[in-house]
Structure formats: C-alpha cells, structure tokens
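Today's session is about reading a structure prediction critically. Students often jump straight to the picture, but the first step is always the sequence itself: look for stretches that repeat, for charged clusters, for runs of hydrophobic residues. Only then move on to the predicted structure, which in these notes is written as discrete structure tokens rather than atom positions. Here is the chain we will use throughout the hour.
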Amino acid sequence: MKKCCVAVLFGLLSTTSAFAQSQGDWTVGLGVGAVLPKSDNGTLAGGEADVGNSVRPTLTAEYFVRDNIGIELLAAWPFKHDIDISGIGDAGDVKHLPPTLSLNYHFPTQSAWKPYVGAGLNYTYFFDESSPLGDLDIDNSWGVAVQVGLDYALSDNAAIRANLRWIDIDSDVKLNGTKIGKAEIDPFVLNFAYVWRF
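Below is the predicted structure for this chain, in token form.
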C-alpha cells in the first residue's frame, strides 16, 4: 500500500512539472491552421463579398521573457482564399501571409493541462491576386490579434496544442486601379500543433 501511494505521489509530481515554461525557454510548434473569415466580408463592387476558408501548415516560435510569459511569432505556409461577390459570382482568389507577434501568459497549473491567453499585432501580406474581372489588388493590413489556447503536456519537453485566434483584417480592394470597397475578413484562426520546449 505504501509503495502504491509513493508511486501515485511521484506520478502527480511528475505531471505538475511537465512542460513548465520558465524564463529563457524556447518553444517551437509545428501544426495545421484553418483561417475562417467571418460570414459578412463587406461590400465590393456593389455586392456582398464572401471570402472562403483556407487550411495550411503553421509554425510558431515563442521565447519566455519571464516564467509563464512568452513572446510568440506565428508564421504559416501561404493561405489561399476564393472570393465571391453576390450578383457576380467568382471574383477571383488571393494568397496571404499572416505573421503575428503576440505576448502570451501561460497559467501555471497543477496538471498536464496548460491554458494560456495572448494578444498582439498582425500584419497580413496579400499577393498573387487574380480575377476574371481584371486587375485585382488587395492592400496589406495591420490589425490586433487575440488568442486563447490549451497545451496538454506529453512530457517535460513536448505538448499537444489547440488554440483559437481572432485577427482584425480589413483591406481596401481595387479593380483595374479603382477602389471597389473594403474587404472585412476578420477571421478566426483555429490551430492544432505539436510543441517542443528547448
């Protein structure tokens, strides 16, 4: 009985220290992200715009400036979105890169579950715009980004992560040099990743 209790206590202690985030640590996450624009994407050329979803590989790197407080950079393989306009139909497609810098707070817990929250700044770079209607141009965007996430520790140096971001992305859209409206994308970004701590 005594041996059993010692074994349980050792297991609990091991769990509480798993994947601890300490000052000076680095984490790198490799995963898959889904950019899910909100349903109402503004008015373009007099019609309601609809920006499609996109799924791509993602990469994060986070440096802990204090215990449980990290600065994180999100990068990804270029996302590609189809654009439809009511009354017109297919208006083209565009690729974008969404580098996002966040300050995160990871809640210290007594279990393998490690929730966190974060806020920061996003820069969205649009490129490779194409449209059957003519020369499509979408301005790059600066905006705030907030997130909530949850890590599940697999060991002292590895975890599985799920997180959800909201990013403010609003961009002027031009067709053949003439402004035709503003795309209000404002997506949720759902991400699942495997995270290593160094």
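Discussion point for the tutorial: The two ends are 38 Å apart (CA to CA).
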